[in-house]
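Lecture 7 notes. Example A: sequence first, then its structure tokens.
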Amino acid sequence: MGHRAEGRGKREEAESMEQGEGNKRKKGDGNRMAKFRFQDLRIWILAIEIADELFDIADELEERKLFRFAEQLRAAGMSMSNNIAKGSGSTSKKEFVHFLNIARSSTFENANILIILNRRQLLPDIRLDEIMTKLDSLCRQISNFQATLR
């Protein structure tokens, strides 16, 4: 890693380490909309990618008129990225960690919903395995990021 840059705290250093690739803003690009710092966090980027997949499953559930399942899956899917975003705007590390805990808990909620869908033969095994692997990775990454904030 090396030495911490002058004027940068542990949180800024951690956020810098957790930035996603390809989501960085170019200097002088005045035509782009405002950008929030959570948009560069790898955990937020992964949460959004998983949410996209969960929304696709929810769309398929709605086609089968399983509206309650679809609604629950969308809500739980959004909770991960919403809480990462909300936490990044916190004024304290303790509060940020709290919102990351909620986001992490939402990965478990999503896993549970997907297992139920699979048991009801509404989600194939291969798709379950793929998304469960991503949820597990996100959960671990959130835990690792939390450790840098303590």
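Example B, a different protein, same format:
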Amino acid sequence: MRIFTMYRKDVPDETHPPGTKNAPDEPQFQGVQFDDGTVVIRWMTAFKSTTHWDSMEDMLAVHGHPEYDSVLVWHDVIIKDMPPDSTIIPQRVSAQEQENMAKFVMRKTAEYHEQQKRNY
């Protein structure tokens, strides 16, 4: 299981009514990616909601928004293969792994949005 937070540094005012977006240094949403790939996100904006997605790629195709200068931050622990009644000992994720995932996420999101532009 992995935990992440999405920040958006440049959400245009014209796409969101006043009071419905967070400041650039505040999370837009937080999420969890389960070991089977399922993703759940919780919006931290004025209108709170929770949604689930079959994959990170599907979620980012809709909510990645590279044009908003979005930054997805993976928190530095992976929790998996925990036997019942065990103490949680997080496994550290290297900075390189975090950077690789961030690049992958942003590339896939940009590819999706480019495809959408071509379709219209």
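Note on Example B: Confidence is low (pLDDT under 50) at residues 85-91. The chain has one domain: 2-119.
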